[in-house]
Design brief:
Layout (H helix, E strand, L loop, with lengths): L1 H5 L2 H13 L30 H5 L4 H6 L8 E6 L13 E6 L9 H11 L16 E6 L10 H10 L4 E4 L12 H8 L7 E5 L10 E2 L6 H4 L3 E7 L17 E2 L16 E5 L3 E4 L5 E4 L2 H18 L7 H10 L20 H4 L7 E4 L2 E4 L4 E3 L11 E5 L5 E5 L10 H7 L3 E8 L4 E8 L11 E8 L5 E6 L28 H4 L5 E8 L4 E9 L5 H7 L3 E12 L5 E13 L1 E2 L2 E4 L7 E14 L4 E14 L7 E3 L3 E14 L7 E12 L3 E10 L5 E9 L7 E12 L2 E11 L8 E12 L1
Parallel strand pairs: 1-3, 1-4, 2-3, 4-5, 5-7, 6-8, 7-9, 17-36
Antiparallel strand pairs: 10-11, 12-13, 14-26, 15-16, 17-18, 18-19, 19-20, 20-21, 21-22, 22-23, 23-24, 24-27, 25-26, 27-28, 28-30, 29-32, 30-31, 31-34, 32-33, 34-35, 35-36
Helix pairs in contact: 5-9
Length: about 750
């Protein structure tokens, strides 16, 4: 590099002299504009240390707060003039300095400006903060008194031995358009330096970088995966007039006669703020400088943020560069272009997940997109935990399990998704055989069999009824409307008279109801939640459920009191109590539940009716240790109840006002373990995490529903309701509420 510098020693000497004289100038690569050492920064936002330059790259107080490490324990090499390590902004940040280039050993404005742009700690004095305020600065004074660069190789070797993993190089040859000398480029691409990220200023000649042909077969796209070239933009995101541009030129391998795509400079280039950048100076004050020299440290700071947050990136220089490139904000022509390269560096985007996303456990990976939960209130405590997922660069991120549960929504929202419009069609005969089907939100342009419910019923002269159909089956047990506790007397989503049986509702079913002696009715049937719409099942990740139910009902001779005792046997595949998972979040091969439900209704008068139900259930699940979740408590006890009062014929013969209180199915206690790969350390060793999830809820959900309905004419029912849930999902302080209307029409 020294030989390259000697190609224009006069200009190099002028550069040193102007720095000594602190004059306002614009020189070649690595130079600056110095405007007033202690002036007020008019670009600063009122009361903010985050100047325009930081805001343009997505660095703000919130980002620094969320990225708590802020570059902690990241050793940043600044090959430049010596930074003033006693500067207020570098106290505790500049931990090493060495004059490696010659006799030039005094504090330097340029080097200090670069270092503080990277890691200023926010002293509260100068009104600024660095991109990575907790990074450690290793300042290497590489210029001698004549402006020549000392031995780059020796300096980089020293830095590497000290643990430096990113080096800022805001300098270059004095020949316009030349990025770096061949010796320098080969040094950066050497195998020994493959773990070091080199951030190189593009230069200030305002020209396209010139192609450079190597005398050896040097494949830049392979060797220089760790190189980031940085041009400068102004506050309007337009390229600064002085900034060099990548053009369509390249690093040419031996015998190449034209540029190949992979070797083009533009694929190594990003932009960063480089005009009137406010930072620290060598005299201990503050001032503004311009140049690609000022742009480069912004990128270096983002690299430090990445390496600080994910130590594994300290050994993956190529991955760091790729993250920087692929998260840049596109500028100019769409895509990677000859002026802006990849575009403007964005710290906020770089700190987000990129590429494929996966969960892991014991060296086994699961696609994040295929890993989902369907959560019912009974096991809602599951969603209080967070899980770690990784991106395409093996960076770990935390995500609440609740975000992986598409059904984790309010009752009202779930009901609204089912639609509110139902048209029922019924055909019958005097023989007792009837056919009925209904369309719920049916779209003839995009039909689905799941949108159609159908039923075939037969009533014989002896009082026996049988039903075969698809859709809502819970009302086949008892036709007493008072026993329905769902919204607008429709099936409930999370409670009601038969909560365990309802977990298998919505698919095919068959029931037989047979009168027995002394006013008793015996009902038995089977049902499954499997539908013809497999896509919907995959979307919701609902466990496949089958249920067998037997109910014994009794109606008093005056028909004012009725009640039933039912036993339900529920078999679930890949879930328990309606909660199941897919991908890495499947936690059981299957489960069995037994439930007893006692329900009753009593007619106080001709128009007023009371109703109640109580369910006690016991579940046993098989455990699976391959996935992230494991049901460690194989036996779960749960219960639910509902109370209601209905008043009919208030203002007409067809209206009804109903108030109900209910508790959805609630698990009393149990444990589930969450074990998964958590993060990689700097040595690329994997660390795992395992936590026990207490399935005991923190609260008790109580639903309050008030609904009114009437029929203005035959086969048309209009209604309105209000709904409120306290401790929603059995989680303390959560609530769910809403109002709605429903229209039901029959033809």
């Amino acid at each position: 590099m020294g030989n390259d510098k000697k190609q224009n020693s006069t200009r190099a000497f002028d550069r040193v002299r102007t720095r000594l004289n602190r004059a306002t100038i614009l020189t070649t690569m690595g130079s600056f504009i110095l405007v007033g050492g202690f002036g007020v920064n008019e670009d600063a936002y009122a009361g903010s240390s985050y100047k325009w330059n930081l805001s343009r790259i997505g660095v703000n107080k919130t980002l620094h707060k969320n990225a708590k490490k802020k570059g902690t324990n990241v050793k940043v090499g600044v090959m430049d003039g010596l930074a003033r390590c006693t500067h207020k902004e570098l106290e505790g940040r500049c931990v090493y300095y060495q004059n490696s280039g010659g006799t030039y050993n005094y504090w330097d404005n340029h080097g200090t400006h670069v270092a503080t742009t990277i890691a200023a700690r926010y002293s509260g004095i100068g009104g600024m903060v660095g991109v990575a305020p907790k990074a450690k600065i290793y300042s290497f004074g590489v210029f001698d008194d004549f402006g020549w660069v000392g031995s780059e190789t020796a300096t980089v070797n020293k830095a590497r031995k000290l643990g430096v993993r990113v080096i800022n190089m805001s300098y270059g040859p004095s020949t316009p358009g030349i990025l770096a000398g061949f010796t320098s480029l080969r040094m950066m691409g050497a195998a020994a330096n493959k773990k070091v990220v080199f951030v190189k200023a593009a230069g200030n000649a305002g020209v396209e970088l010139s192609s450079q042909q190597f005398s050896t077969n040097f494949q830049a796209w392979s060797k220089l995966k760790n190189l980031i070239i940085v041009g400068a933009v102004k506050s309007n995101r337009k390229i600064a007039s002085f900034s060099n541009r990548p053009g369509n030129n390249c690093f040419k391998a031996k015998k190449d006669t034209k540029c190949t795509k992979k070797n083009m400079y533009k694929y190594f280039t990003v932009m960063a703020p480089g005009y009137n950048i406010y930072a620290g100076l060598g005299n201990g004050g503050y001032g503004k400088m311009s140049g690609t020299s000022m742009a480069a440290p912004h990128v270096t700071g983002v690299v430090a943020l990445l390496q600080g947050y994910w130590p594994i990136l300290k050994t993956r220089a190529g991955a760091v560069a790729n993250i920087i490139f692929h998260t840049a904000q596109d500028l100019g022509a769409k895509g990677v272009d000859p002026t802006y390269g990849w575009g403007l560096v964005r710290a906020d985007r770089a700190l987000g997940p990129l590429g494929k996303k996966y969960l892991g456990k014991n060296n086994k990976i699961y696609s994040l997109s295929a890993s989902r939960l369907k959560v019912t209130p009974a096991l809602s405590a599951l969603t209080t935990q967070s899980v770690t997922f990784f991106d395409g660069y093996d960076r770990d991120f935390q995500m609440p399990l609740a975000t992986l549960a598409p059904s984790y929504a309010g009752v009202l929202n779930a009901w609204m998704r089912d639609g509110y419009e139902r048209h029922e069609y019924t055909l019958g005969s005097d023989s007792g055989l009837s056919y009925a089907f209904s369309a719920n939100g049916y779209d003839p342009m995009n039909p689905s069999l799941a949108d159609v419910q159908w039923r075939i019923s037969f009533n014989d002269a002896n009082g026996m009824d049988w039903h075969l159909g698809q859709g809502t089956a819970t009302d086949r047990l008892d036709n007493t409307q008072a026993l329905s506790f769902g919204l607008m007397a429709d099936k409930t989503h999370q409670g009601g008279a038969y909560p365990v049986m309802a977990l298998a509702d919505g698919g095919l079913y068959g029931f037989i109801d047979q009168p027995v002696a002394l006013g008793f009715n015996l009902t038995g049937g089977v049902l499954t939640n499997n539908t013809f719409n497999s896509e919907a099942d995959e979307r919701d990740f609902a466990p496949k459920s089958d249920a067998v139910v037997v109910a014994l009902g009794r109606t008093s001779t005056d028909k004012r009191l009725s009640g039933s005792l039912s036993a339900t046997y529920l078999m679930e595949d890949q879930g328990v109590l309606g909660t199941g998972g897919a991908g890495g979040l499947g936690f059981t091969e299957g489960s069995e539940s037994q439930a007893i439900t006692l329900s009753t209704s009593y007619q106080l008068s001709g128009n007023t009716e009371l109703s109640a139900s109580y369910t006690e259930a016991f579940s046993k699940g098989d455990t699976s240790t391959d996935n992230l979740l494991t049901l460690t408590s194989s036996h779960l006890a749960s219960n639910a109840f509902a109370l209601g009062v209905a008043q009919r014929h208030l203002m007409s013969d067809t209206d009804e006002l109903k108030f109900s209180i209910g508790q959805p199915l609630r698990v009393d206690g149990g444990l589930m373990s969450l074990s998964h790969d958590d993060y990689y350390d700097e040595t690329e060793a994997m660390h795992s995490r395992s936590v026990d999830i207490d399935l005991s809820p923190t609260g008790r959900q109580i639903d309050y529903q008030l609904q009114y309905s009437f029929s203005p004419k035959k086969n048309l029912t209009l209604g309105a309701f209000a709904y409120y849930a306290n401790d929603y999902l059995h989680q303390k302080t959560l609530t769910d509420h809403g109002v709605g209307v429903r229209v039901m029409g029959g033809f």
